[in-house]
Design brief:
The chain is of the alpha+beta class and 407 residues long. It has a domain of 282 residues: Aminopeptidase, CATH 3.40.630.190. Helices cover 37% and strands 18% of the residues. The strands form five sheets. It has a seven-stranded mixed beta sheet, with helices on both faces. It has a two-stranded antiparallel sheet with strand order 5-6. It is elongated and about 125 Å long.
């Protein structure tokens, strides 16, 4: 049974009589009143108690006397976020980055201790009754031995190193002084033919000390001749040098004249070259291309060492894992150090040798002896001044610093 008058919903035409087409005025008023205040007290008509229309809440006042709808909730589709969507995503990325940092740190620390364990350690620096007292700063004995370990038979032929060489020799002997007062480090070359007293073996070339008693006797000989206490020892052989140079992709060197040395097998045209490991070995061994022989060779060795360490410590090598990892493993596996030396100290030396002051121990001339043959004699007055200044961290006069230039 429908209680609504027929046609109540039809729109009343303008100008029509109140009861025409839209029903009677009473029937028209009832639904209108119901729609505006449905369920409110005062509604009249037969449908006021039976209407199926739900009760509507009263309009709210949001200020200013006007009703404003609440702001709709924002979600991903409307350009906003719901329930902390973006904060949760940002928090997840921070966790991932933090985890990566932790993993990298673990790998770096583990790699450091592994490389440190790969260093070959020997009991080189021992106490004896006349060992010099500790001075200012610290002193390193850096040597290059003629060990062929690590070279194949083909490489020995190709690099003209010879085979089955008896005895042990050190073609490179250097003392690096690391001042404690902020002054630049000083690198001093001791020519292998230097005529010095060797403890327990009389006077001979300093190179003979290595043959007589290895690095231990060489260290004692250097300390006795210079008056400096050696705090650290580092040595590398022929094969080790080749391996390190190849690991860093070669070392760039420039030459004003051609080098043609049949003894070392080095043949280079004038200009700049990136030396391979084998070429680098031939270069630091070459002494027959110069009138001053070993005195020029020690300068070439210092120039090459600086160039090599520039390459090793450059951002292009250290920040590139494809260069830094092979270089680090290549160097650690071929270095011999004393028992008290660790990897971080070798890194300090590497940076120090990028820009050191360099010189050769002052030489007064040559001497010939039946036991040693032609040898170099030190200028003992100037040599004593040089080593005393280093021992007390004093400024070394320019006259004692010869520098380094490629021959």
């Amino acid at each position: 049974m429908n209680e609504w008058p027929a046609g109540w919903f039809r729109e009343q035409k303008p100008g029509a009589a109140p009861g025409a087409a839209g029903g009677s005025p009473g029937a028209r008023a009832q639904p209108s009143a119901r729609m505006q205040g449905g369920g409110q007290a005062g509604a009249t008509g037969p449908m006021s108690a039976m209407s199926a229309w739900p009760s509507q809440p009263p309009a709210r006042d949001y200020g200013g006397g006007t009703a404003a709808p609440p702001t709709p909730a924002r979600g991903p589709l409307s350009g906003g976020f719901r329930g902390g969507f973006r904060p949760r995503r940002r928090h997840r990325w921070l966790k991932i980055i933090g985890l990566l940092v932790v993993v990298v740190l673990i790998l770096v620390v583990a790699g450091y201790f592994y490389l440190d364990s790969q260093l070959h350690r020997q009991n080189v620096l021992v106490d004896y009754s006349q060992r010099p007292a500790a001075g200012a700063g610290s002193n390193w004995l850096i040597t290059g031995s003629d060990s062929r370990q690590g070279l194949s038979r083909w490489q020995e032929n190709h690099y003209s190193t010879g085979h089955d060489v008896s005895g042990r020799r050190s073609d490179t002997v250097m003392v690096l002084h690391m001042p404690s007062n902020g002054e630049p480090p000083v690198l001093v070359s001791i020519p292998r033919d230097s005529y010095v007293p060797i403890p327990g073996n009389g006077w001979n070339k300093i190179n003979a000390a290595y043959s007589f008693g290895g690095p231990k006797l060489l260290a004692e000989t250097v300390q006795s001749a210079t008056g400096l206490r050696i705090d650290h020892y580092m040595s590398i052989g022929f094969g080790g040098l080749v391996r390190v140079v190849n690991a860093v992709g070669g070392v760039r060197m420039c030459f004003k004249t051609a080098i043609q040395d049949s003894y070392s097998g080095l043949h280079l045209k004038p200009g700049c070259h990136t030396l391979s490991g084998g070429q680098a070995l031939s270069f630091v061994r070459d002494r027959h291309s110069f009138g001053t022989s070993d005195l020029q060779r020690v300068q070439d060795q210092r120039v090459f060492m600086s160039a090599l360490l520039h390459k090793l410590t450059s951002p292009g090598t250290m920040l590139n894992p494809f260069s830094s990892i092979p270089a680090a493993f290549g160097a650690a596996g071929v270095l011999t150090v004393d028992r008290g030396t660790h990897l971080y100290q070798l890194m300090q030396v590497a940076f120090a040798l990028r820009h050191p002051k360099t010189t050769t121990v002052p030489i007064s001339g040559s001497v010939f002896t039946p036991a040693a043959g032609d040898a170099l004699q030190w200028d003992h007055a100037q040599a004593s001044q040089l080593f005393n200044d280093l021992n007390h961290d004093r400024h070394v006069p320019k006259s004692l610093l010869t520098g380094s230039k490629v021959g």
